[in-house]
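Field reference: sequence -> structure
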Amino acid sequence: MTNYPLANFTGSCGESSTRGQPNSVTCPRGMQPNEAAAIDGNTDLSTCMVANGGAKVYGITLTGSPGIYDYVVNVDAQGPSGFGSGSMYLAFTDQSGDTYSLSIYSSSRSVHTVRYNSQQPAIVKMWWSDYSFDV
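Structure field:
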């Protein structure tokens, strides 16, 4: 992923394997467009944002997007591997309070995207879990 200025998030790291209790990290000023996420100063998120079956997030950026949607959260990640391993579930909350969800099921590492429109697009909270959740 491209080198962008960093938005530093803080919070709980590790796998969230309890239904209805996703892990989360926050950044009060928010990850602005054309910034990348860091957690406790670390841009390699793979030691923090993890899920079952070896699922992990390596990096996250927020960019602008021409077209119908103005913003894109780009998530460099891989889902769990193994028969019946399910998905890794993520959500992103922007400054307006809107939340956008993503599930990653492929065990191949690739960039996944969430496209959205918002008057306050900065991402202030990121969530993840082994299980689908509502925030």
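Note: The longest strand covers residues 23-31.
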